[in-house]
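Homework help board

Subject: predicted structure for assignment chain

Our instructor gave us this sequence and asked us to write out the predicted structure in token form, then describe one feature. I got the tokens but I'm not sure how to describe them. Can anyone check?
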Amino acid sequence: MSTSSADAAAPSRLGRLPRRPWNAADLSLIAVFAALVASFSLLPGVPLGAGVPITLQTLAVMLAGIILGPVRGAAAVALFLAAGLAGLPVFSGFSGGLGVLAGPSAGYLLAFVPAAFVVGLLSRAALRRGRRARFPLLFASAMAASFICVHPLGIAGLMLNAKLGFPAALAADMAFWPGDVLKNLLAAAVGVSVFTAFPRLATKSR
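My token output:
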């Protein structure tokens, strides 16, 4: 075997195929899901005492990761976050700018990118297990991302910016748990429907 052939075969032997560059379709999907997260953020939220309202933002974040996969999903949410931090009023309450990082919701906002990546990564593993268990596995993926990323960083943000002790921050965060369960159930249901209608998304999402 020639050196060039051996080099070409090396990624396959190691199980790491070269990643294709994003095309126009990938960039369009990233932009669409960034706009989806923004639109869900602007819907009226339910105010809570800690200053962080209950919104549909996390539903859109989970959908981005589930449908687009870890890399494109995280990129879509990062685009949304960058637009908001640059000053566009795309955060809850039509807010934007770097000032939100000093607010009580900062931890939740910063958790969105890793949450999209984690749910996308776990969802890809779930999709490889076949169709019959897709709904519970996608739901479990979304719940894992919530409790690995969103809630710990949210609690940290409440402690840092709202000056709450850990017990008070945890109690404030627990108000989001029932809504997160419902939103993650919906995200899993939408994901199953999308992959049923467009099965190529389940094999090409990354």
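Reply (TA_rk): Your tokens look well-formed. For the description, you could write something like this. The chain has nine helices and no strands. That's the kind of observation they're looking for.
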